[in-house]
Specification:
This protein has 143 residues and is mainly α. It has a domain at 10-99: Orthogonal Bundle (Arc Repressor Mutant, subunit A), CATH 1.10.10. The protein has helices at 10-15, 27-38, 44-52, 64-76, 100-130; strands spanning 42-43, 80-85, 93-98. A hairpin with a 7-residue loop joins strand 2 and strand 3 (93-98). The longest helix has 31 residues, at 100-130.
């Protein structure tokens, strides 16, 4: 069965492309949450890998370029800081850390997400009324 939460194929996604986890702004609370859970600096590569397991990406690896772009914006905004990890062998990598401002921002996201949830439920009800159908049950998305 096709799931609007996790399209199974590219054809499912292309049928209504906007349904596919394309809410770019939600990558920020995902990254902030991963850094807060870690309690220690994280390489961007690890953030990308762990983001795949988050509810936002549902097991699919996110676009690494998008995650790095978000990290850069978040660093410019003072939500994260980074330092270069330059090992004796191998390539240099950035280590990202959540700042105090980042922790405060994550706390604000908790409330913002609750507001989004209410707004989305209102939109679902409006859409069902527009189609003159009974509001479908809220799906149980498997993450």
């Amino acid at each position: 069965m096709w799931s609007s939460c996790h399209p199974k194929t590219d054809d499912d996604l292309n049928e209504c492309a906007e349904l596919g986890k394309s809410l770019n702004r939600l990558s920020q609370p995902t990254i902030l949450t991963l850094l807060a859970q870690s309690k220690k600096p994280m390489h961007g590569y690890i953030i990308v890998q762990q983001a795949a397991a988050s509810p936002m990406f549902g097991g699919k690896k996110p676009d690494a370029t998008g995650i790095y772009r978000a990290l850069k914006r978040m660093e410019e905004g003072g939500l994260v800081s980074s330092v270069w990890d330059t090992p004796e062998e191998g390539s240099a990598k950035r280590l990202f850390t959540l700042t105090d401002k980042g922790y405060r921002c994550l706390r604000r996201w908790i409330d913002a997400l609750a507001c989004y949830e209410l707004t989305i439920e209102e939109l679902r009800a409006d859409a069902a009324r527009a189609l003159d159908i009974e509001l479908p049950d809220t799906p149980q998305c498997a993450h």
